[in-house]
Amino acid sequence: MIVFLGTYPPRQCGIATFTADMYAAIGAEVEPDQKPYVIAVTNTPESYAYPPEVRLEIRQHRIADYRATADFVNNSPATALSVQHEYGIYGGPAGRYLLTLLRRVHVPIVTTMHTVLAQPDPEQKRVFDGLQKRSDMLVVMTERGRQMLLEQGVSKNKVVVIPHGVPDLPFVDPNFYKEKFNVAGKKVILTFGLIGPGKGLETMIDAMPIIVEKHPDVAYLIVGATHPELRRQHKEEYRIGLQRQVRRLNLDDHVIFHNRFVTAEELAEFLCSAEIYVTPYPNEAQITSGTLAYAVGSGKAVVSTPYWHAQELLADNRGILVPFHDSNAMAQAVIGLLDNQTQMHAMRKRAYEYGRDMVWREVARSYIGLFDRVCRIRQKRPVRQAGRVSTIISAKMLPDPHLDHIQAMTDGFGLLRHAVGPVPDYGHGYCVDDSARALVVATKALRLTQDEKALAFLQRFLAFVLFCQREDGQFRNFLTIDRRFTDEIGSDDCQGRALWGLGYVLAFGPRAMAAIAKGAFDRRVDSFQAKSLRGAAYSMLGLHYYLTAYPGAVQVRTLARKIAGILARTHQKTASQDWDWFEAALTYDNGVVAQAMWLAARHLEDEDFAEVAARTTDFLFSITTRDDHISLVGNDGWHSSDRPTKPHFDQQPVDACGLVELAKVAYRATGSERYLRWMRMAFDWFLGDNDLGVPMVDLATGRCYDGLTPNGPNENCGAESTLSYLLALLTLTEVSPEEEDRQAFGHATVPAKG
Q1: pLDDT reported for residue 570
Q2: Which CA distances in Å does 390 have to 66, 107, 353, 628, 676?
């Protein structure tokens, strides 16, 4: 039994139509008890009224849904998973949540690549590498697509070409269908599909006056709804612009818009009514066009710009290619066909005959043969189990990240520091320390969930941090509710945290905000001097993100080496055989210091830094691990080398978060699974796996208590605590365990222990 994963009608998109056609075609070729089912990716909160074959839906931006879906497939009679891949239809950066699902699925995976990119960006490359590793076979629809995959290092034995399917339509006289669309007696040119700027319709409309002058009986039908995402953001502005263009050119009687998403039956009739089909796409980077395939398969004379799919499909005189953005060339090609009916009829016949191998029946049989083959191959290998990280990180389902309490703590100016219970406390005002941490949380939440609330927070918190920056680049820290600063220059820790927050935004934030964050970062880094241990460590985090975005930044790399040297020398002065740490005491927010050493080792390729990072990480977890849970260092006197036992209370959320972040970078640097276990244990401190066995968070709002006292949680829920919980949760959500992710992150040179 085949399971299809992709978008699905009534959602309006090309992949939804493709998935539905595949489902119907394969369903018609298999026995009733082997009829496939569908898992649909949904992009709206209210879902869609799906037909019965849709057995499950995935909410696009909920990573928990991807894990649950893998379990659903594993516990079903499925024999193979057919994935329809397009970067934009799955959640996470470049659709990375899909990999979470694929890592857990046990059945063979055949992925149909609806988009093949010649130059993917780093996030897309990361997803593609994971996708091709996890898939048993990749399907492309053109020989050009196959060649591009081979050039990107995919094995030739892992790529197969199966054309885009087309309906099995008769080769008919178009005049028979024209009356239905009120174009009887006219010569019909057709374009169909979702309408948007990437279709080049302006070029064809500009060509129409030339065509009409020679053939006044011509009609150009533009059939299709405006793309839903375009309509959601800009309503019908684009279509209205096209209609204005038509009126300006006096083409109202010759250009006809059918503004709706048509059924398969209607589409067949539109195709049958046309003599000529046009695709005036504006650039070549289009590896697959379902509409072009439909036109060729139905025997249309096609005039197209030379994008990749058109070059291949229209070869051998099956169509005419004209230059991009050239309305005159488009017009002359159409006129040439209308002037020479014999030539046009011969072209239509060549296209129709070529398309016989593309009808859905033949395409379905090719896919069924491929599914059978990958299943036979898989049976000869050991069964691939779900990724180890899934069983370690996701042994318990992760909660959804809720930003409700952050919203409650944020007023029109910024993020309030403290709360009395769940109620914001205006008396303590605002600070850069919390707002810098909030920049990281908001940016990460935006990347992983696409939550518009996160974007609004990011704008607010970035504006606040910029407001607190002095002309010399340094930051003030504390601000009262009536917007009076209570310090002239914030602490060294504050300066480091500001660089951390700004660095994360410039590396991973939206482009406009990344540029603003970079400007603020540059103003500060010019004169930055680290005086405190944590100030140096947080600044190293900021420098890491800067170098992630701009690896060639010489000044930043020099500063990173300087700060790493300070941290390493501090460790050398203090560490002993029994106390492998940077200070004589373990106090507050310890994990960030060892984390900074891992990042320094990664960027500076320094074995000594990597050795310090590994030793101090192991030491910190040895102190904070108790039986099967994390027991943080309490603030009642802290813990020092000359104190026989550590204090257990009060424990603070920022320390649990610091351990999660530390374990993440240690795992990515070494690949050792014990760091994954520690990472999950540290996060579970928030959920109740702590010394008292009590939850520290309200999962419904994302609210986190300020500390674990001997009598239970301190029920105040300030900004730092809630942000620490959210950052830990989002970090677990994004962790990528696969070898290709560790390669992308870079290895420290110290070997993993244990």
Answers
A1: 95
A2: 12, 16, 49, 19, 10
